[in-house]
Amino acid sequence: MSFLPYVVAVWLFVIGLWGVVSSRNLVRTVLSLTIVQSSTYLVLLAVGYRSSGKAPIVADISHTFKLVDPVVQVLVLTDVVIEATVTALLLALVIQAHKRFGSVDPADLRPLRQ
Amino acid sequence: MSRRARLLLFAAAGPGLAAVMLIGLGGLPPFGDYHGIYGLLLAKTEVSLRRATDIVTALNFDIRAFDTLGEEFILFASVAGVALLLRRLRGEHQEHRARGIEDHRFAGASEGLRLASLIMIPLIVALGVYIIVHGQLTPGGGFQGGIVLAAAPVAILLGGRYLTLKRIAPEWALEGLDAFGAMAYVLIGLGGLIFAGTFFKNFLPFGDAGQLLSAGTMPLNSVAVGLEVTGAFLLVWTEFLDQTLISAGPEAEKG
């Protein structure tokens, strides 16, 4: 089943996107967005994987071993940290929206007046 | 936008998205059969060129150090945004309100849990520091270790002592840590410009592979990022906890 990781990634992307589209609660919207983002981690890691390759840490193995691609791992590593803080920023916006409109339903959002 | 409008928009755009995704998926390499030469080349040469044994960190803090700078500033900007958004809402009587939760305890924060969280703190700090300083040797580095370090003061919260947490890690100190880490990272990059002629060029001696002080500027970058991530995450958690634990005080009195 060499395509299974991609299937899971697409599944995560689609349910996350559906969560954003159908959401009645802004907190759910934000969490759905993180699910969409986790599908990108899976795609990146799956792209860089090489069958029976070892982790790209050569502290106790020789670098002549077959290794998986380290570049995509770096991308995922920094992305995880960034995602956490960006999610925090979005949740802070949700708190603000709740204080201003008294609701976390995206349909209740109004333009800000001067 | 109403939910109905969103669903209609999605129904219209969905097939297009599905088509583009299928085309994109068709272009992906089969799983487990990757032949990208760039990562392979780096994995083969990094030990001899930089004396680093963790190729991921070597990429993060050396080859891609400039990209990491950008990512670090996304982190910095979003944390600044959180602080800005949540701080403006707090009233002037914050100190007065805060007194009410001096003895705040979570339900079930027993003596045993408090003792356990106290024991956990030094262990978490040791693990976090270990992960940060061994970044270029074994799995780890500033991003991972920073988050572990940030978890240490949260053990105090687990013991039900939120104000003690705020005393140990006040906001000005967390902001300072966050900003200092970001600044230190940029200064290391400028060091490359000054001493080696290229921004973020690794200008320190590489030493021997496997040693704690090896791989040039990588351990320094790791520590700088570690400090920033620690400060950033603690600041975010403090801001959110302030919303629930301190701001909720007067509303609870009203209710």
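The mean pLDDT of chain B is 80.
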